[in-house]
Alanine--glyoxylate aminotransferase family protein
Amino acid sequence: MDVSPFAPRTGIAAELDPPARLLMGPGPINAHPRVLRAMSVSLLGQFDPEFTGYMNDCMALYRDVFQTENRWTFLVNGTARAGIEAALVSLLEPGDPVVVLSAGRFGLLLREIAERAGAAVTVVDAPWGTVIDPDAVRDAVRRVRPRVVAAVYGDTSTTIAQPMEEIGHLCREHDALLYVDATATLAGMDVAVDRWGADVVTAGLQKCLGGPSGSAPITLSDRAAARIDRRRHVEKGIAAAGDAAGRGERIRSNYFDLAMIMDYWGERRLNHHTEAASMLYAARECARLVLEEGLAARIERHRRVGAAMAAGLRAMGLTLFGDQRHKMHNVVGIEIPPGVDGERVRARMRLDWEIEIGSSFGPLVGKIWRIGTMGYNCRKDTVLVTLAALEAVLRAEGWNAPPGAGVDAALRHLNGGEHAGAMG
Ligand SMILES: *Cc1c(COP(=O)(O)O)cnc(C)c1O
């Protein structure tokens, strides 16, 4: 007891003081300072009228971010995966036929969650870095007559965005519900929920929305909500299996039971979980920032800055991964040049420059790096410093880019307008 309670704490008792690292990977990214400030305001109880007012704000704000009229637009507590799981376990009953579009890590995740939900899964896949053949999707939908088609719009593992418009039409024609994972694209690309005819779309904050991970915005069409509503089994004594009243089978998760979560977000305000207040504040501020900038302007910023990053990398003599016609705005894959140790490059970027860039998953491990330009980090200065750093690091590793070429190309792109640096 001879240690003053005010003595400096070290080791495990030290106050957190992480390095001010620039997160230029495929997410998470550095949160916008306004989002961090919003997270530190006073906590409120989950039924406090002030707080339920903030919940209603979030519903309205995210309708605009998702470009939808959907009444049921709210937040699921947890990272983006919580939104995905809530959507799929609430939509899918055991034995339901489902078509999963898979061309990357998150397509594999949709498949796994659908299988765990007991659905009869048919996968339409494509090599990582390519888009899925729309004819193959059409054939599968005609053959399987799925209840649900599940797809990823932009998959950060491959940096490719799948064309969504046609799939929405196809689902309407065949009376299937369309689920889309838009985690990596919402507020950075055109996630047009109503125009696509998507029924359930989910996201996370840590990509183009510019927040920390931990809240999953979700939107549901009325027909998706009605399907989930059928599975509500609140009265005691109702069997787990579907009953004569045409009820569906009870949702097999409590935490991710969207019917119960909608009972809390709706007028009834029935208790389910304790809403993660600080995360709700963060999500609310993320949406405010998007709408303040203007959704279209924000998408354009992601397109322009992402194109400048790609132009810079190409000018350095690096090869970009995947079908560039379908590249996401906000993340780029770079083939690791022969003879270069990808992990050493990432370590030098981090240790010398305090910049994080991404590695990769599955078939791409050791083959590509991934660099993101998202949300708060989607800026001219972050592109320039990342390109300058990468050039210096690659030189130290014995791989020489034309000096200054990357930075110059990016600058031309961002200062001289699109076509000055014409990289297509
Ligand atoms: C990044 C990403 C996620 C992230 O899920 P978390 O649970 O937040 O880690 C999900 N889906 C896609 C398509 C992503 O790119």
